[in-house]
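## retry 2 of 3
previous attempt timed out at serialization; input unchanged, resubmitting
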Amino acid sequence: MEQDTRRSGSFFKMMGEIANDHVVQFSQLGLVDIPEISKFVLSVWSEGYGPMGSPDLNEDYLHWVLGGPNKTKNLLFGGRINGELVAYQSFLYRTVYYSGKRFNAYLNTHLAVSTQIDLRARLECGFQMGEQHVLFDARSKYFDPNCDMVLAFFEAEKPLKYTGDRLLKKCFGITRFDCITFNQFMIVAKRIQNYVKQNRLEEDSNLVRGASKNDVGELTLLFNDIPEDLQFARMMTEGELAHHFFGNPNHLTSVVETQGKISAFINYYPMGVVRGGQLSSYVIVEFLFSKDRDLRFMAILLNEALKLAKDIGAKGVVLENATYLESDHCQEIGLMPTFRKMTMSLISKNHQIKYVGGFRSDIK
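## retry succeeded, writing output
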């Protein structure tokens, strides 16, 4: 531990020496900078994602993601050279549940570094962005005393993650913990439709309706209802959920109502994906929840996402995070894992969290 402290100390000494001759100047950005952020991230991601395609992070989408009740808590950092944006990452405030306790967390996302700057500048971006990543560490100039942990989602096996891991270990003596690796899912339309037909769910179509802001209180209670086997979950206040579900007119929430109460819900929205300069549409399912994991309700709700995809001519429907759905159940109702795997990683104050099994969170 003493050796780690000396190494960390030498790093900060080095940073102090570099501080007098910074090539990249970092500062905190705000919602007013969204047009510039959108243009920059799209330009970098369109190169980095390659054949996978990159999400169309247009201005409306970023206003939704970065705005809302937590807009004063979300942290947006941009690095500039001669006034031009060359690096960016955001930390979105989240309240998370783990092992019966609530923690203040930040989701690290939208990381982008220009490929047009030289190696020295890119290394400097890495150092400074790494220091931002340890918001809970008092040695960081970006220290936030209220931060308990920082989590992030990475494409599995991507070099970017391992580079960041080495940086955090060498410079801060901190080991980032890989919690869980999971697949994204594509919805197979014919399987869903066959499941709906075989189980005569068309007769229950009157159970499904679009949600409204009048449902926020009930939806919040249901959203924050944590099953016993769910270890790690995002939690939302009514204001946060209202913004997340209804803060963008293109985003939709449908519910299943039984005996006058909401038993299940789905939150979904259209998103563009840029591949080779071409823009295609997909429907993204962000949250799919059934109180008793009732497959019938899940199938009915997924069918609503398929209807939207058909209406807008989308190429497919993607379940953005696998949450804690069991893979055999997923396949039964028409969810098929894609070859794209994601890893959820986190680092925390005092290293409280050592294992995460079932989880419900979000990816941005």
